[in-house]
Amino acid sequence: NFDKTSDHGVAETAYDAIHCKISAVKHGYFDDAFVECFEKKSTRRIPLIHRGYYLRHLAIEAVVDLFIQNRSTPIQILSLGAGFDTLFFRLIKNNVQNVSMFEIDCSAIVNQKIDILKMNMSKLFGNLFKCQEEMECFSATSTTSKFITAACDLGDLNTLEKCIKQHGFNAELPTLVLAECVLAYLAPLARSSLLQWASSTIKDATLVAYDPITLNSSFGAQLSSYFKAKGCTLRSVHSTIQEQEKQLIDLGWGSLRLYNMNAIYSVLAQPSERERMEKLEPFDEYEDWISCNHHYGFTVANNGGNLGSKVIQA
Ligand code: SAM
């Protein structure tokens, strides 16, 4: 019943994410030498948006770095709803070796990404990668690393597993499962099936997820109508951080940490870094910032390990 060409009305969000990232990079919030390959025209976003993307970037970078340091190579990254993410190119630029990236998204985004990759081959891959294009799938392989982007519906787990295995995904290898602002767009059953599939299929999986969360269901309803007005459907938004904790444990992620983004800022940004970031643009929407940060959550979970379960709010 699945149609990988269906974007469930959410593909457009990938364009919004890359535009916001470009604007945040241009204003000095974080470095990413590759975002501009993915979109040439971008309009300036407001400081509140820049700060949100800054925190999201900070959190993901920190977990990816930790994951790479703590695992012996080779490692895999399975990026669910990858959109125009540039993580693989940043890792290669930083000389990370032995990494295989499997990116999944719907056809509209993957086809667009393939066109962009082909137009920016030397900037993105240098000259060490051999590339191959198939139907709605593009791969680039060097002697140590591999990048695949393929079209698949995240609700179609049989096809997803077949597709990544066919391209060399090894469920025995330590794998970072990245879902940056994706899980909330899936229908609740598709979301839980996907998370259960990942925890039961991959031997040593670390889930990293960034999503809207809610403090109560009336805020959840408001957020849903806001996204509906923008033309997209936010389906799993009604869960609070505590509900997410319970769901993840039930789905096989025994070991987890859930943070809201205020906690991320206090845990991850050192005083000198805060001073640098806070000086970038005039800003006086502190109440809005604290409130937005309360309504976005960052999850790090493992299907083995011993992180223990903990909800961290600030
Ligand atoms: N992770 C990227 C980032 O943070 O820049 C993109 C995030 S964007 C908000 C959500 C992405 O999830 C979109 O690229 C969308 O096409 C993808 N997506 C949502 N539901 C999907 C589904 N059922 N199958 C495949 N991709 C899906």
List the SSEs and their pairings.
Elements: H1 12-26, H2 35-38, H3 47-70, E1 75-80, H4 87-93, E2 99-105, H5 107-119, H6 121-125, E3 130-134, E4 137-141, E5 146-151, H7 157-166, E6 175-180, H8 188-201, E7 205-212, H9 217-229, H10 241-250, E8 255-260, H11 261-268, H12 271-278, H13 286-294, E9 296-302, E10 310-312
Parallel strand pairs: 1-2, 1-6, 2-5, 6-7, 8-10
Antiparallel strand pairs: 3-4, 4-5, 7-9, 8-9
Helix pairs in contact: 1-3, 3-11
Describe the protein in words.
The chain is α/β, with parallel strands linked by helices and 314 residues long. It has a single domain (12-312), classed as Rossmann fold (3-Layer(aba) Sandwich), CATH 3.40.50.150. It is 45% helix and 19% strand. Strands 3-4-5-2-1-6-7-9-8-10 form a ten-stranded mixed β-sheet, sandwiched between helices. β4 (137-141) and β5 (146-151) form a beta hairpin. It is globular and about 50 Å long. 41% of the residues are buried. S-adenosylmethionine binds next to α1.
Short account of what is shown:
The protein is α/β, with parallel strands linked by helices. It is built from 13 helices and ten strands. The protein is globular and about 50 Å long.
Label the CATH architecture. 3-Layer(aba) Sandwich
CATH class: Alpha Beta
Q: Please state the average pLDDT score.
A: 90
Within CATH, the superfamily carries the name Vaccinia Virus protein VP39
Radius of gyration: 18 Å
Distinct small molecules: S-adenosylmethionine
Which term fits the overall shape?
A: globular
What is the SS-derived class? alpha/beta
The biggest beta sheet is recorded as: 10 strands, mixed
Helix content percent band: 40-55%
Widest β-sheet, arrangement of strands? 3-4-5-2-1-6-7-9-8-10
Query: Can you tell me the number of structural domains?
Result: 1
Regions with little confidence, pLDDT below 50 for 5+ residues:
none
Termini Cα gap: 43 Å
Percentage of residues in strands? 15-25%
Task: State the helix count.
Answer: 13
Helix and strand sequence: HHHEHEHHEEEHEHEHHEHHHEE
Number of strands: 10
CATH topology: Rossmann fold
